[in-house]
Amino acid sequence: MKDFNWVEARSQCNVFQVFRELQSSIEEEVGIRHQQTEGKNVGFRFQQYGEKKFAVYRNSLEKSMMVEFRCDAAGIYAKGDNSLDLKATLSLNDEGECRLKVGTEELMQWQFRRRALEDLFFGF
Fold first, then answer.
1. In Å, how far are 87, 100, 121 from 115, measured between CA atoms?
2. Sign of CA dihedral 38, 40, 41, 47
3. Rounded Cα–Cα distance for residues 6 and 92 (Å)
4. What is the mean pLDDT of residues 39-50?
5. Secondary structure (DSSP) of 65-112
6. CA end-to-end span of the chain, whole Å?
7. Are 21 and 109 in contact (CB under 8 A)?
């Protein structure tokens, strides 16, 4: 990594780019989870609210829930009905990888998505 261009890598590690990547992955995951639960009186829905906000909904006879995702220049946020409240900032780690920082933890995108959506997807 002697010639690693950290300036270029860090400029690409920006809130709006990562938010779009998270959004795309979450939309796909919602579709997968919805298919897995078809016919089980539960459904999942992805809803876009402009460029900087979207939500995931679970509708069931037992319990309906939602998780809202939004971003601004300071970070990416996930807030849910079940007291979920995540704020992630971005950083470039020593391996040159763009990571989400939640508190002192450095997370990959799938780890952030799991923390935000696991209860909504699997907590019945």
1. 11, 12, 11
2. negative
3. 8
4. 92
5. EEEEEEEETTEEEEEETTS-EEEEEEEE-TTS-EEEEETTEEE-HHHH
6. 46
7. yes
Burial class of residue 107 (count of CB atoms within 10 Å of its CB; 0-12, 13-18, 19+): middle
Tokens of 54: 């979207």
Torsion-angle region of 84 (φ positive above 0: left; ψ -120 to 50: alpha; else: beta): beta
Amino acid letter for position 123 = G
38 pLDDT band (50/70/90 cuts)? confident
* Residue 20, number of CB atoms within 10 A of its CB: 13
Mind listing the pLDDT tens digit for each residue in 66-92?
999 999 999 999 999 878 899 999 999
d(CA 78, CA 54): 10
